[in-house]
Amino acid sequence: MSASLTLPVLKPADFASDQDVRWCPGCGDYSILAQMKKVMPTLGVPREKIVFISGIGCSSRFPYYMNTYGMHSIHGRAPAVATGLKSVRPDLQVWVITGDGDGLSIGGNHLMHAIRRNLDINIILFNNRIYGLTKGQYSPTSPLGKKTKSTPMGAIDNPLHPLSIAIGCEGTFVARSIDTNIKHLGEMLKRAAEHKGTAFVEVYQNCNIFNDGAWDYATDRDTKADTTIELEHGKPLIFGKNRDKGIRLHGLDPEVVELGKGITEDDLLFHDEKAPEPSLAYLLSRMRHEDGFPEPIGVFRAVERPQYDAMINDQVAQATKERGPGDLNKLFATTETWDVAS
Amino acid sequence: MSASLTLPVLKPADFASDQDVRWCPGCGDYSILAQMKKVMPTLGVPREKIVFISGIGCSSRFPYYMNTYGMHSIHGRAPAVATGLKSVRPDLQVWVITGDGDGLSIGGNHLMHAIRRNLDINIILFNNRIYGLTKGQYSPTSPLGKKTKSTPMGAIDNPLHPLSIAIGCEGTFVARSIDTNIKHLGEMLKRAAEHKGTAFVEVYQNCNIFNDGAWDYATDRDTKADTTIELEHGKPLIFGKNRDKGIRLHGLDPEVVELGKGITEDDLLFHDEKAPEPSLAYLLSRMRHEDGFPEPIGVFRAVERPQYDAMINDQVAQATKERGPGDLNKLFATTETWDVAS
Amino acid sequence: MSTTLAEKIETPTHVQQLEDATVRFCGDSGDGMQLAGTQFTNTSALVGNDVATFPDFPAEIRAPRGTKAGVSGFQVHFSSKDIHTPGDTVDALVAMNPAALVTNIEDLRSGGILIVNRDEFDKKGLQQAGYATDPLEDGSLEPKYKLHKVDMTKLTRLAVAGSGLGQKDADRCRNMFAMGLVFWLYGRPMDPTLRFIAEKFGKRPEVAQANTAALKAGYHYGETVEAASTQYHIPKAKLPPGRYTNIEGATALSWGLMAAAQLSGKRLFLGAYPITPASTILETLAKHKNFDVLTFQAEDEIAAITSAIGAAFAGEMGVTASSGPGIALKGEALGLAVITELPLLVINVQRGGPSTGLPTKTEQADLFQAMMGRNGECPLPVIAARSPSDCFEVAQEAWRIATRFMTPVMLLTDGYIANGAEPWLLPDVSKLRKIEVKHPGPALDGTDNADESTFLPYQRDERLARPWAVPGTPGLEHRIGGLEKQDITGNVSYDPENHQHMVNTRARKVAGIANDIPLQELDGEETGDLLVLSWGGTYGACATAVHAVQARGRKVSHCHLRYLNPFPRNLGEILNNFKSVLIPELNMGQLRLIIRGEFLIDAIGLNKVQGKPFSVAEIVEKIEQLLK
Amino acid sequence: MSTTLAEKIETPTHVQQLEDATVRFCGDSGDGMQLAGTQFTNTSALVGNDVATFPDFPAEIRAPRGTKAGVSGFQVHFSSKDIHTPGDTVDALVAMNPAALVTNIEDLRSGGILIVNRDEFDKKGLQQAGYATDPLEDGSLEPKYKLHKVDMTKLTRLAVAGSGLGQKDADRCRNMFAMGLVFWLYGRPMDPTLRFIAEKFGKRPEVAQANTAALKAGYHYGETVEAASTQYHIPKAKLPPGRYTNIEGATALSWGLMAAAQLSGKRLFLGAYPITPASTILETLAKHKNFDVLTFQAEDEIAAITSAIGAAFAGEMGVTASSGPGIALKGEALGLAVITELPLLVINVQRGGPSTGLPTKTEQADLFQAMMGRNGECPLPVIAARSPSDCFEVAQEAWRIATRFMTPVMLLTDGYIANGAEPWLLPDVSKLRKIEVKHPGPALDGTDNADESTFLPYQRDERLARPWAVPGTPGLEHRIGGLEKQDITGNVSYDPENHQHMVNTRARKVAGIANDIPLQELDGEETGDLLVLSWGGTYGACATAVHAVQARGRKVSHCHLRYLNPFPRNLGEILNNFKSVLIPELNMGQLRLIIRGEFLIDAIGLNKVQGKPFSVAEIVEKIEQLLK
Ligand SMILES: Cc1ncc(C[n+]2csc(CCOP(=O)(O)OP(=O)(O)O)c2C)c(N)n1
Ligand SMILES: Cc1ncc(C[n+]2csc(CCOP(=O)(O)OP(=O)(O)O)c2C)c(N)n1
Ligand code: SF4
Ligand code: SF4
Ligand SMILES: [Mg+2]
Ligand SMILES: [Mg+2]
Prior knowledge:
Chain A is of the alpha/beta class. In chain A, about 30% of the residues lie in helices and about 20% in strands. Bound molecules: thiamine diphosphate (2 copies), iron/sulfur cluster (2 copies) and magnesium ion (2 copies).
């Protein structure tokens, strides 16, 4: 594999497989794919060392379109597949591509456990708040009252908040971006790749066939400056077309305030993605458009913790150091044996 | 069923089934069972209207010992069984009994979705930080480095915090108690029963065979006053043998302070179980003994939200009101039909 | 809105009478071919033909326009005789673009009518379809087929010009133009479709107007431009008298479940997780909550079945529906339903496997899974529907068995049945067979303090069914679960003899269902040279094939199984009355192995796993070959 | 620490030579019966007997002391001949309390030795066991059995008095006293156990001393008090020469997996979720990480198998192990492994079903699930171990097949094999058969820019195996998944003919394994009146039974299957050489149905599902009955 040591300069196009992309024209998945291909060459990882694992769903077709190693596994199980893969081959860069149904409905438990184990993998959840591939049933992120094929009278399950869950199960890197915000999306993918440990990124993605416009408020030219807020480490939470609004803490409750009129930047909540305790990240994950808050995008939390894949291999190394490389004869000799003479 | 309308006065013993209890002598499960039997008669629910559903595990043997309706289902699925049961029969009081493995390992996803749907059921998780029934493998709540049958060199998964997860997935009632703190445990069970919506209660439970002493710090006569703190709605967080210590907020970080020396109760964090946003409850769920905090017991969060079982039946009622009770002939007539003459 | 249509079809000079015809509309998934097919089907049914359909979807939601991956088709077979299949070969093919042409042309019989939208045969289109040269011009299609090159895009745009629609929307009306043309070709009335348009687009008159214009334009295009060529007429079929509707399998199944719930006085609880092609059951039932239907879209298939088990324990009608991969996930929970002996319906709308396989294609390869896909000795009844309308009755029968015997029942259909449609003689609801369900009443002493040991949850009746005691009943408090139970009391028991007894009893109970179901019927002579034994969706093709060879005087009979476990009591006898037995299956021989193992007869298989149903010809050919 | 023991056993006046004997220790789960049994087994093996064991655990962790639910037993069969079963009936029974007596006495042969701890036969004890009167006094045991009432509790307390242990700990030594007594009875040396005690309690000398004292006390109690009665001597067995150890099935299986990994130069990744009786594999492998073993305790069985699939895709040895209910959950993922054609081992340590069933008891009822428990046409090889030590070899064979044919392999054992133990001739590691694994190298042009279409992941070799291209190899980047694949390229394909071709190819590949495995061997004549056909853990009982009837001159042979799918090439031939075929199974006839279906022979079943193995007598009886 010496070839993998020399790093030829690759272009985004080098990461395109020979398969035609089969998403609906206009699908948000296209721009995520484009950004991924853009980011790839900047990571300095040889193509053959990259693996994309997905479950089932429109989003999960992603690996077919990347000219890397990949597996389009079964519904909801990608994080588990990635866990085995990364454990035996920590040298590989492993990406998990999932959807709001694949990752939060059938696959919720695997997602939760992958995150808490903090394997060094990157999980990108395409959240279109609908089941696309199966043609339009509601998903765990569909809002209450949402009318879909399976909920003609409206959905009655409180939606899950992907980031709240990720933070609730010990996430070490938690971020959010938007399919159409390509520059920001690219940065988030890069940050995720660079993080040591499980990086979880929620991407607002538009399904223009079955849930068109679900994220309009966050993508619309005229409104997005007021409906989203970009988190920057160490910076105050400021937003608004003319950056004249901010988020202030009132006890444990965030509130929207106008800058000026006696309120200065210093009064605002300052973002700290490295806070050892996840309380801030959690609080930010609760800021919702429907409650009159701008929705944060960017890195909510990024802390270093031991990684499962490293530790499981450390134990192998340690055991080998202490007992020497496995030797069956030695093993047999540890038992009570007896000889039968011929 | 008229009998069920008259409520004969029942004693705890009336809730004991005719089966011998088969937990190990000294198991914490006994005292939880005892408290449950104590609470039952106080709830004013006729015995035949109560159903206990469990998965698999020592804890999940619980239903066999209650003289109510019950199902010892399969590993991890009790919340889903309860969802179907409660949806078609909202008149029943449904309890789910689960363990840290049953509820957080194989059953994590069902637990998460039951909580976010907020069905009016009560979920009691017996947390002994070990797999008891299968004889001592580590569980999702076992601490890092824990040596067990399946982790001879120590566990390498970051443990999950049951309450953080419950809060991370929109829990409306979240509480914690301890097997040996029988008075408190009884209260929590009662509060859970009274809550409308999914009540989630974590109970620290000692497995004296495979994980003896896991909770000693929280149960030991001499230390428990300093290692645990009882949450009371609207009251400041005070603890310690002589109630001279408290929890103060420093930004978003809780800190332990000594009362007196210029620090008064008013400087302390006041508990608000009804806070609309779960940030406080989440923050409290992060206070861990290992980090030098007293661990909160009591009700972390208790808010009213619409319940799935009520809403699913409301939709049936509404549909019936709008379209009249289902009539197959009417249904057939909605299609394009034609007649073939004889 | 029943209508008996006046036969007011202008009859031009050349009208050719036909017994039946098969038309296929194919185009891009965006071209509305499914709608065209459905409309044509309903209209044909309305004028009194028997019909059978075969929609064929692409796996992608919307593959890029013009690609082969994006081709969607809908085939309609309509006839003056009673028919069971969508037809082997196509008499008239409508291809909206080159990709549709190249992927469908081989099914068009030589001499068949070929209608193409010439406007789409440009460079890009031809290349996407992989055509080196333009087939419309290179003589590869003519004179082999009766080729009609129609500038549908242009003509449609012209027709709808007035409506003020944008070009994108205007082009959406091309399917109407194509339909209009085919309507004229087969002398079908436009009224039903005009009514449909009025209803569907009622709120957007400009769209309604445009579609109407396009439809008529297509029809008149036929009358005028094509006046020379022939028009075809297919007389009414002689169906039994009564009121009919054209019904899809998924709808019939859902309605059957609703009927079963009403007939047994139960609430209907469906626990389901979406999966192609089973999702339509969830979606259909969700529309009828006024039938006391509760639909629960679960987080996964395991929650779907376990929630249904919860509903069953609660005393209501628990149902779960999925397809192969989803059913695989239900295996463990099925065991729980078997050992707790609760009534439950598990519906498998089979699709191509293994694994994710061919999600939108049909197959019958989950029979093994249905019969044997569980740990331990875990028998349960398995029954299968044979056609779209049959689903209505099978759903009720499955629930009848589940409640009479207190057992989960596996009901098998497939993508072909679920998506296919056929005329259905509407049943007289008042005559539907009641499903009696008994629940033990409160303990005799009526009090809530009754010692529950007086209630014996595993005390069985003459059918070996245990009592279905419902929570809320005083004095019947009891616990059940997945551990082996003691006979009669239902308490946990590790006793060796008891385990043997319970395993035997569960098996005997299921086997005993054979005494409760009708004897197996036979189509043809009691004895003969060959018996064709079929199950599920292959019914139509097998029946048609057998009738064909019978007509040639062959000693061949047809036996179609609805009950796969247990088999009807007289099946062995029937099998032994024939020199040989042929079992056509859309799998590699699953029923065959079981029949051989059970009856020790050297049954022969005709097996096909190509994601599509048998053609009648395939079966006829095999039969003739065996008779040689 | 091998030892050749000097036969320094004092031989008292009455020594009776026996060919073999069966001893069972039973008592409360807290009484240390498993330890007593294991020690007695090892000692017997060390003195040169052949041994076979049958531990029997209660399902509860610790049921209340003295209850029947809490009784734990361990049976040892030791012999001067080579044996395969733990023995049908018991020659000597040690019962530590009334509950143990009542639940085990029926297995003691009349005239057998019965040793009881009289101290436990008080009111409470008798009542917990359900004895109305004291069996030690009411003559129900004497003279039927050779009854020895021993005040074990008192005597043990006396013996350990010096050690300064509290009474609770002192009583923990009663099992040692009982062992000592039985050691004397069968003239076994105490040294191995004394060594064991020294090691185990090294850190707590007082405990070591107490146990030693109790053991010796029991032994001398035999010498002195019981001096009158007889002592028994079982001479050495004539085992093939070499070095032996006594090995349990779970250990042999785990070691076999480790050997397979080494022989193929792979890392061993086990993805497992704890479940009785499979957990011991996870626990054993976790102890040997220095063999480059990675053990992953997954969140559930689905994550367990899919993580192993991930490891397989990564190019290493992926293994998952579970039992019935857990395997049921793996069905969908097995389909993924089949269609992606990755090597994978799936181990099912079978237990009593259905559902949760009888978790601690043995059964063979998951064969159907192994063969057919998946959606779609989804064939995979199935092989089964026949005894504890056989697991070592079967594990390697399974991995050899998985890698040579690029397929998941199902390996079946059961609770009886996993927990049982037998002497095992330690293999010469240097002679173990290598497992060659080939991975395609980097693309020829060696660069990372190789157009991946040059690599064809579904281009097959002569065995129809596809290449195992490992991530990290430049130029071989490729994608696989659960959708049907195009032949050769592996791209997604919905083409009908391709689907048929791929289904056929996957089936042919698995069937082709028959050409790669040894021909089926036969124990006995090539032809005869009856063939006993067995698989898995019933080997011992069947072999012993057949030998017994052969000794009586019956024309009976024995054929034991290791390979269940595909069957060995010559199986059909063998079956046809016998007038009739008997298939004993610990299920209701699963192999039987498959054999009948495949070979159309009227095989007869001997079936038992009682959570315990066959007795030799049961099989002999059935054979004789069939020969009448
Ligand atoms: C075991 C199983 N159950 C169900 C399905 C059907 N299915 C495929 S994708 C999907 C959900 C897709 O939703 P999401 O994950 O949000 O992906 P999207 O299509 O929206 O990108 C479902 C239910 C399946 N393929 N396998
Ligand atoms: C499908 C399945 N997988 C695994 C098991 C084995 N099993 C039974 S209980 C259990 C875990 C018990 O742990 P927990 O839920 O914490 O309960 P506890 O015994 O500690 O009270 C496991 C792994 C099973 N019965 N079924
Ligand atoms: S259905 Fe929605 S998510 Fe799927 S490809 Fe089409 S637009 Fe994208
Ligand atoms: S093993 Fe532990 S949890 Fe289970 S019953 Fe015994 S003490 Fe309780
Ligand atoms: Mg989605
Ligand atoms: Mg536990």
